[in-house]
């Protein structure tokens, strides 16, 4: 009789409740970002301010749609997997198609702002591309890792939202006053927020994967996957920034042409977002590794010379 092969722990599907909650949270996040962007853009009195507002809103909407596409695709895959096992190609196709559907629906509130020009079509296309990429990532056969990264990304968003509510008093504590000191305080605030977000990302990813371990009967994923999940939120920010600079490049270029001040602001914000994403990525990965490392017990050293010497001495005396 041959033993049935045991599925690798990283391939075990997440629970429907967990994935459904993640998908709901991601969709609420995305809807809030898109609604805020639409209200801000349509509330501007002239075309120049509409362009700059669109450029400011683009990266946040792209990041939110990346997570939404991944979470909804993961939910669809989880529901289908309860009935049948999907092959790698079918799984990837279903996930990518689901992400594309989320992207198309997300693009509608932006495209319908003004259908006359190409500006909002570009933004809508960028948002749709982000959700499609998120769905494709969910097609990888590592559901617990995708869920952990998505949960960490949502946690990072919540932390950023809460910290921004207290931004003014924190900036004052950091010495904000004139132009130079305000810029320095804003930079320290950005780095502090990124470090705190990375710490939270690593811990959340670790907690979700440890819960998945219990569902897998005690089998744990490999430690590099903990690092990947912890780095997920930072990677999402980096991918979102890259998409904004490439697919949405025309929008950013138009915003930079409004005035020299807007050009400088766009460059500063773009650099700050990229740097923050990298900080979250590395801090999240390191935190997750340290968290899982604390749970690992040292392996017994079978070649310990002292134990071998004692065993040999015991055997010698017994033979004597």
From TrEMBL:
According to the record, the residues making up region (Disordered) are 298-320
User: Can the keyword Cytoplasm be found in this entry's annotation?
Assistant: no
Q: Where is the composition biased (Polar residues)?
A: 306-320
The name this protein carries in UniProt is Uncharacterized protein
Q: Which UniProt keywords apply?
A: Membrane, Transmembrane, Transmembrane helix
- Record keyword Lyase present: no
Organism domain of life: Bacteria
Q: Mark the transmembrane ranges.
A: 17-36, 56-80, 92-113, 119-138, 145-166, 186-209, 274-293
Tell me the organism's taxonomic lineage.
Answer: Bacteria, Bacillati, Actinomycetota, Actinomycetes, Micromonosporales
Species, as recorded: Actinoplanes aureus
């Amino acid at each position: 009789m041959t033993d049935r092969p045991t599925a690798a722990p990283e391939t075990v599907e997440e629970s429907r409740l967990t994935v459904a909650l993640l998908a709901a949270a991601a969709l609420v996040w995305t809807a809030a970002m898109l609604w805020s962007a639409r209200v801000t853009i349509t509330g501007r009195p002239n075309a120049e301010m509409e362009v700059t507002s669109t450029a400011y809103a683009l990266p946040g909407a792209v990041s939110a749609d990346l997570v939404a596409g991944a979470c909804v695709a993961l939910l669809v895959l989880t529901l289908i997997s309860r009935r049948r096992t999907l092959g790698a190609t079918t799984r990837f196709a279903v996930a990518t198609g689901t992400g594309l559907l989320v992207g198309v629906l997300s693009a509608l509130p932006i495209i319908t702002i003004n259908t006359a020009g190409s500006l909002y079509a570009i933004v809508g296309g960028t948002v749709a591309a982000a959700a499609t990429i998120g769905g494709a990532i969910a097609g990888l056969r590592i559901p617990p890792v995708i869920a952990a990264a998505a949960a960490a990304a949502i946690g990072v968003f919540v932390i950023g939202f809460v910290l921004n509510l207290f931004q003014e008093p924190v900036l004052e504590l950091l010495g904000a006053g004139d132009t130079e000191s305000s810029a320095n305080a804003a930079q320290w605030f950005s780095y502090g927020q990124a470090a705190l977000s990375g710490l939270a990302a690593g811990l959340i990813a670790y907690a979700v994967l440890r819960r998945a371990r219990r569902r897998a009967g005690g089998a744990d994923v490999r430690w590099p996957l903990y690092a990947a999940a912890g780095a997920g939120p930072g990677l999402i920010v980096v991918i979102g920034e890259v998409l904004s600079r490439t697919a949405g490049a025309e929008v950013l270029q138009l915003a930079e042409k409004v005035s020299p001040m807007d050009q400088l602001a766009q460059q500063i914000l773009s650099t700050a977002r990229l740097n923050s994403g990298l900080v979250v990525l590395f801090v999240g990965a390191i935190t997750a590794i340290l968290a899982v490392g604390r749970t690992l017990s040292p392996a017994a050293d079978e070649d310990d010379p002292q134990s071998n010497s004692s065993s040999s001495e015991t055997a010698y005396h017994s033979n004597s």
